Amino acid sequence: METKAFQKIYTKVDKITKATCSLFASDVGNEELAIVDGRLAQVVMIIGDKVTLQIFSGTEGIPNNAEVVFLGKAPTLKVSDDLAGRFFNAYGEPIDGGPQVEGKDIEIGSPSVNPVKREQPSKLIATGIAGIDLNNTIVTGQKIPFFADPDQPFNQVMAMVALRAQADKIILGGMGLTNDDYLYYKNAFDNAGALDRIISFVNTTENPPIERLLVPDMALTAAEYFAYEKNQKVLVLLTDMTLYCDALSIVSNRMDQIPSKDSMPGSLYSDLAKLYEKAVQFPSGGSITILAVTTLSGGDITHAIPDNTGYITEGQLFLRRDTDIGKVIVDPFRSLSRLKQLVIGKQTREDHPQVMNAAIRLYADAANAKTKLENGFDLTEYDERALKFAKDYSKNLLAIDINIDIELMLDTAWNLFTKYFQPAELGIKKDLVDKYWKNDSN
């Protein structure tokens, strides 16, 4: 990057750690970019005249007399319709061999939308995955995380959601992706012919970890452009937020900040909220919905990252491997969408709320029967039926590879009810049973 006239240049670095350096400088803005010894850096703390910079590619080899050039601006993204179908790095530069994007320069990391300009989320966003659409329906403007163990196929699930979701634009923010994962996303989008509505910002394991801190802001800046200026329905997929938080931790530890719970910075809650609160439904019809993966260390839901995430978001989706069918499912017991009642039975079929509740109750009965069996108790005839129902319910509806619309999900549930139970065992209103039971028992 060339230096220009009037840029502030310093040549005395006061302190260097593994990820940051400090110096005395004046008239510098927070989050401003700088070049330190030819490496890109960003201001992360200002106390009086003492400025601390995080250096994205690390500080190894930087001398105390390194040249520091402040660029006078925070990181920006050029936004235009030309972003569609492209892959970019954490700095918003193309990595797909295509041309540079022409457009308006927008500073990333702006504040979230003024509450006055928000509307209560009220529109369904269908993903084609029954474990989500049937039991944990997502609403435009919602923010919801996937909690998953690191060995679960969450990247495949995110790619499936990207290809199936009924949205105008899908924006992927990939942090710490392996090259295999990156190529998986690229090939999946390419082969499906869906590239024209997907925009990807990617940091791989070969890139410096600190660069991950830019990826969500890049993705959300692009989302705001399409949602606010183009009135489009935008779905933002962020994976993996645990690696994003690890990068936050690296920087704060190198700045000698006292860590909070689980070695995370004390600012973790506000760092995450700043991103998740970008989810919004605009009165004009545009919206940003955020679906993010948070991997769990050893399944620990009490770790600071999922713990803080749960306070900010409106529910969570749990992935788990169902040993009975050998497939990964969206766990109906541990998953919850807190906004689903705004659309189920209103924008979906009238029987949706009762079918959902009945199916989960019957699935719970099967779980109780399984416990009885494991403890050596005899099963009743109802227990046997519940176990068979649960296996079919997992295989035909909860498995993440099932791609059907909500009407068919409801019809499938009715077919399973008809196969294993009597109407009186469902606990569903008689008028709904009369209407749907007969229709699907043929």
Structure notes:
- Helix content is 32%, strand content 22%.
- It is α/β, with parallel strands linked by helices.
- The protein has 3 domains: 8-70, Beta Barrel (Elongation Factor Tu (Ef-tu), domain 3), CATH 2.40.30.20; 76-339, Rossmann fold, CATH 3.40.50; 352-440, no CATH class.
- A hairpin with a 5-residue loop joins strand 15 (280-281) and strand 16.
- Helix 6 (268-276) crosses helix 7 (304-312).
- The termini are far apart.
- 44% of the residues are buried.
Short description:
With 442 residues, this protein is of the alpha/beta class. 32% of the residues lie in helices and 22% in strands.
Secondary structure layout:
Elements lengths: L7 E3 L4 E2 L3 E5 L8 E4 L2 E9 L2 E6 L12 E3 L5 E4 L7 E2 L15 E4 L22 H4 L9 E6 L5 H11 L4 E9 L1 H13 L6 E7 L10 H15 L3 E7 L1 H14 L13 H9 L3 E2 L5 E9 L8 H9 L2 E8 L4 E4 L5 E2 L14 H23 L6 H18 L7 H15 L9 H11 L2
Parallel strand pairs: 9-13, 11-16, 11-17, 12-13, 12-14, 14-16
Antiparallel strand pairs: 1-7, 2-3, 3-6, 4-5, 4-7, 5-6, 8-10, 15-16, 17-18, 17-19
**Number of domains as seen in the coordinates:** 3
User: Beta-sheet strand percentage?
Assistant: 15-25%
Q: Mean pLDDT across all residues, rounded?
A: 90
Helix content: 25-40%
List low-pLDDT spans. Answer: none
Main sheet, how many strands, which sense, barrel?
A: 10 strands, mixed
The number of helices is 11
End-to-end Cα distance, whole Å, is 70 Å
Give the radius of gyration: 25 Å
What's the CATH architecture name of the largest domain? 3-Layer(aba) Sandwich
CATH class of the largest domain: Alpha Beta
Pattern of helices and strands: EEEEEEEEEEHEHEHEHEHHEEHEEEHHHH
Q: Any idea of the CATH topology of the largest domain? A: Rossmann fold
